[in-house]
Amino acid sequence: MQFEFTPRVLALRAELLKFMDEHVYPNEKRREEELAANARAGRPYAELPMMAGLKAKARERGLWNLFLPESEHGPGLSNVEYAPLCEIMGRRYWCAEIFNCSAPDTGNMEVLARYGTKAQQERWLTPLLAGEIRSSFAMTEPEVASSDATNIRCSIRREGDEYVINGRKWYITGAMNERCEIFVLMGKTDPDNADRHKQQSMVLVPKNTPGITIVRDMQLLGMYDPPFGHPEIVFDNVRVPVENILLGEGRGFEIAQGRLGPGRIHHCMRAIGMAEAALEMMCQRLVSRVAFHKPLSEQGVWRERIAESRMLIEQSRWMVLNAAYRMDTVGNKVAAKEIAMIKVLTPNNCVKVIDWAMQAFGAMGLSQDTLLTHFYAYERHLRVADGPDEVHRNAIAKQELAAYQ
Question: In the chain, is it the N or the C terminus that has fewer CB atoms within a 10 Å radius of its CB?
């Protein structure tokens, strides 16, 4: 395996780094000001005014839809090629949207590109690819352990030419955003099927459909996340046409498995970028602060933490690249073990780096004056999102034991 950057990726990487220096880092303060202005205006989930201009610049420079391996819709990069680019976007947790590469839109666009009908693609994929609307993935439920998708209770019942949806979802990322127009919803069309993996289906549900109630936005570690939001939503006799089904009844689990692999590895790629940014902040802080008559950077404990941080980041990066290589060469299903391993390893490693960076900053590391609290919340959330550690550890162990049973 060789993970050398191709000339095309080197060019995109250089352009992306330049874009971050010119347009992302200088706009961090402006972003906070616009978030505050939206909140004062009573529209905390409205798109920030600066985003439209930044998206136009990114698109002009060819930094758009980089995540899609299908050349029909995107640049046709492999997972290995996309990895260093996604990592750069992760250096600021909010900026992937500028390049139309943010979750959950990326996963939903991949679902529509691979499983959607031509009509579904024209109605929803085309505006998503253009960045004209946003979307959400409605799977997680409060009443059940929905990291096991077979537990999903949300009902999708056919009545004539319509599906009637009843259920409660929560932590539905992006659903509060004013530009979110479509849910990819997972529920059960055949709850009595003897094959538990054939009970579920996925259906497209426009956000403005009658019967949809956003109950409340959910906090992440005590913080709300405008302009995206992660709300609790009730679907009460929500009716959509039968042609809104994706791939067909009973295919929901199959679609979910195809969607979650890329989604998980993209999260891990961005997480590595955050950890790199945290390590940079830590080093800058340590060389500028003196305690006990010498710079913190000269004290043994901090040198040990810097070295350990570098090793944790590199370990995560190479494991992610290996998983990406496996996805590219043998497919997402066969690469399931490698994806499970990075889903456990990466957030655990990266949150440790971020925690040390927060300690280096002392009280400031817990405040709004650095990005570290946002980084920490993102990484801690990643340890639970798409299944907690124990789910993935169990999957890894099952594959290891299979040869001996």
Answer: C
Per-residue three-class SS string for the chain: CCCCCCHHHHHHHHHHHHHHHHHHHHHHHHHHHHHHHHHHCCCCCCCCHHHHHHHHHHHHCCCCCCCCCCCCCCCCCCHHHHHHHHHHHCCCCCHHHHHCCCCCHHHHHHHHHHHCCHHHHHHHHHHHHCCCCEEEEECCCCCCCCCCHHHCCCEEEEECCEEEEEEEECCCCCCCCCCEEEEEEEEECCCCCCCHHHCEEEEEEECCCCCEEEEECCCECCECCCCCCCCEEEEEEEEEEHHHECCCCCCHHHHHHHHHHHHHHHHHHHHHHHHHHHHHHHHHHHHHCEECCEEHHHCHHHHHHHHHHHHHHHHHHHHHHHHHHHHHHHCCCCCHHHHHHHHHHHHHHHHHHHHHHHHHHHHHHHCCCCCHHHHHHHHHHHCCCCCCHHHHHHHHHHHHHHCCC
Q: What is the pTM of this model?
A: 0.93
